[in-house]
Amino acid sequence: MMPHMANLMIGGVSDNNVWYVDSGASNHMTNHGEWFRDTKDLKTPGFVEIDDDTAHPITQIGKVPLSMQNGQIKYLKDVLHVPTITKKLVSIGQMVEQGLQVTFNPNGCFVQDMKNQGKLIAKGERNG
Predict the structure, then answer these.
(1) What is the pTM of this model?
(2) Would you tell me how many other CB atoms lie within 10 Å of the CB of residue 15?
(3) Torsion angle of alpha carbons 54, 96, 87, 51, nearest 10°?
(4) Domain definitions of the chain by residue range
(5) Which strand ranges, in their side-by-side order, compose the sheet holding 88-91?
(6) What is the rounded distance in angstroms from the CA atom of residue 108 to the CA atom of residue 125?
(7) How far is CA 125 from CA 17, 38, 39, 103, in A?
């Protein structure tokens, strides 16, 4: 995985609510199993390898509800539950595959829904 490019503050500013938008992440992932809806068990065991070459087991896949700034609930689809990771990651590649566009500028990142006339659905401030 590459270094995190920006963080996406969803639902508040506490560390528990920060999702990192990561260009190197192959999938969305979190360690918060209690957040998942409509989960599926994996047919074969899977692992996520991180920067330090350690492998972390994937226990299930599902969708995670996110509170948008306008109060709506949106679901991040196909999220991996990886109990031993410490950051919540949003994969740019996976967002693009799901019909979203992610752009960056010096202030942060912006996520637009290209299936809905490019409507801005999330934004994140640059961190680091």
Answers:
(1) 0.80
(2) 9
(3) 30
(4) 6-93
(5) 6-9, 18-22, 88-91, 28-30, 73-81, 55-67, 37-49
(6) 4
(7) 13, 30, 30, 12
Cα angle for residues 77, 83, 86 (degrees, 5° grid): 90
Per-residue pLDDT of the chain (128 residues; tens, 9 = 90+): 333 333 444 434 445 678 888 888 889 999 999 999 999 988 888 999 887 888 999 999 999 988 776 777 888 899 999 999 988 999 999 999 988 899 988 888 888 988 888 888 888 887 76
Structure tokens at 24: 């190197």
How is residue 2 annotated by DSSP?
A: P
Q: Which of 86, 96, 100, 89 is nearest to 25 (CA)?
A: 89
